[in-house]
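Exercise 7.
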Amino acid sequence: MQDDEILLGEGVAIEARPASFAVRMLGALLDVTIIYAALLALTVVANTVGVSADPAVGAALGVAVTTLVLLAVPVTVETLSRGRSLGKLATGIRIVRDDGGPVRFRHAFVRGLVALFEIYLTVGCVALVASMVHPRGKRLGDMLAGTYAVRVRGGQRAMPPIVMPPELARWARHADIRRLPDGLALRARQLLGRAAMLHPTSRMRLGQEIAAEMERYVAPGPPVGTHPERFIAAVLAERRDREYRHAVAEAQRAQQEAALLRRLPHAVPDPAD
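Solution. The predicted structure, written as tokens, is:
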């Protein structure tokens, strides 16, 4: 696995760039500032209510407010937003699992529980040192939860466009290509985009596997001796072109139907604008 990529089970790398140290610190600072402001406001209210009622009630309210603001609210927000918060939203980052999937409650709970020690009790010193040492900038909560922060906003490295192989253009134009499963189409697209970064042996094996799976949706099959990656490129390019032509035809048909609906019945001419 490279530092800025996740290797899927099929051996295809997808981009998931870890957030930089400065961006993570800025997002954490925004979150902590908001949390402390909310904690201060609610503590004042709790103390006011407690003093007017009973000191024991005020102490209980203080503990409840602290637990709510420092643990319950951050864990709930991170769980429902799949790894986002106000600070992370502002800085364009997200918390994901080590395999690139969205975080769940248990991941958010572990991160929030450990944050009580490494962020709030130590004023962020432990989290700062851990993030600086770890290659992916993980703090202790991320190490225990199996998560890390990735960038979801900013410049993206675009994959090269798919080009129809000239020797397969005529075959692809007349071939019957059924709709490919989304997973298969995604794996094929990622293989073509990342082929140069794969080991030659793994590249050939993955190409043959994906091509063999894709042949079940194409009739007739490609000419004998066609390279697997050339076949995959031809199918994806033809599929893209057919979907584009279909979308254009549907848009023109919708415009014609809209024009008919706007016309008056019985051949009455439309009023002049």
